[in-house]
Amino acid sequence: MSKRKKIVVKIGSSLLANSDKLTLRYAFMNGLMSDLAQLQREGYDIILTSSGSVALGLNMVGKRPEDAGILDKQAAAACGQPLLMNAYRQVASEHGMGVAQMLVTVGDMEERRRFLNIKNTMLRLFENDILPIINENDSVATHDLRVGDNDRLSAKVAQMVQADLLVILTSVEGLYDRDPSDPDAKFISEIEDVSEHLESTTGISALGSGGMLTKMQAANMAQNAGVETIIAEGIIERPLSSVLKNERRYTRCLVTGETASPLKVWLSNRLQVAGTLVIPNAVAAAVAEGRCGISRSDIFSIQGDFTKGDVLHVYDEGGTEIARGLTNFSSEETMLMARNLDTPVENVIGYKTRSDVIAVENILVLRENHLPLDAPEHDPKFVTPV
Ligand SMILES: Nc1ncnc2c1ncn2[C@@H]1O[C@H](COP(=O)(O)OP(=O)(O)O)[C@@H](O)[C@H]1O
Ligand SMILES: N[C@@H](CCC(=O)OP(=O)(O)O)C(=O)O
């Protein structure tokens, strides 16, 4: 793999579109492309995760940001994405740089083969000094299958290419201890544990979708992948190199702890839940220490329709997510096996196989600094098996 430094840069909607007219902020795009082209010449491989398709497409569907519903936004994204890419292509070519578009959904990032394919495409683009510009494919992604914000999407991209740095450029200088519209808000220049800052991150700009909350979640995902995150203001002159050269203030989210293997990082940063298992606290403690996998007799309840090879989220009885792992069985098979503990597995499911539902080597124990998903809701289809 190339020794060039890899940087993933995320650009928020408010940097690319005027909030009143919903038209392109050409000066920002020009400053950005000039800076990236120079950094590319200096030896950086850069990936851009760019928002802006919805904001730039709203005029075409006759809507304002505050009254657009999800279908309006999906239609606006379909209109705005070609406008956005056309602008990037023209401006980048003025600075001698080629660009490529990659539109992805959460399913693309979380299905292992598609994930690896996206990564290989990006690495091939780097070989030709082409700037990959990524956005979520908003007009095809359904509510359940959306990342929903480009902050977390950019963290997934950073994890995918094992980036050296993730830089999130936005409308404020970085994280404050409360909404920066409060005159007493204090700037925070360095963070280790993002969970300490979740309470202070409500409020979004007129065009933004996730606010600081999804930036904190993204920083946490990047931390788990061993990637440092910088949150900085998207200024017009040298928006990225001024950060890399430490010329202005920003918020730095440090990497703490050891980085897991790429497969385990991929497991830890999933947003899509195929299914969940709830296990007794005693077993959960053993799983958390890496002492065992999960067998059919360990299951309190099963939720979701999953198939062999899907990633399951494992909760203890108190609703704390303790681990994730690849299941050896479908939800129907797991249910049958758990309901018929006295019958050999092969007689229950009709073929001979190992009986671990999740093998110990396919389990990722979630570290304390991981931001968990919410506890699963009760699913009437799959209840306690015994
Ligand atoms: N604690 C905080 N620190 C910094 N910004 C905050 C905080 N809480 C809320 N915000 C708001 O988050 C906004 C940035 O998020 P967002 O609007 O989603 O931007 P983007 O479009 O760049 O993703 C800022 O406009 C800011 O007002
Ligand atoms: N995919 C959407 C962007 C969603 C999003 O994360 O927006 P933002 O919070 O402005 O970065 C778009 O292109 O408009």
UniProtKB/TrEMBL annotation:
The keyword Disulfide bond does not apply. SUPFAM superfamilies: Carbamate kinase-like, PUA domain-like. The gene is proB. It is an enzyme of class 2 (transferase). ATP binds at K10, S209, G210, G211, M212, L213, T214, K215. Belongs to the glutamate 5-kinase family. Keywords: Amino-acid biosynthesis, ATP-binding, Cytoplasm, Kinase, Nucleotide-binding, Proline biosynthesis, Transferase. This is Glutamate 5-kinase. One of its GO terms (molecular function) is RNA binding. GO terms for biological process: L-proline biosynthetic process. One of its GO terms (cellular component) is cytosol. PANTHER family: GLUTAMATE 5-KINASE (PTHR43654), ISOPENTENYL PHOSPHATE KINASE (PTHR43654:SF1).
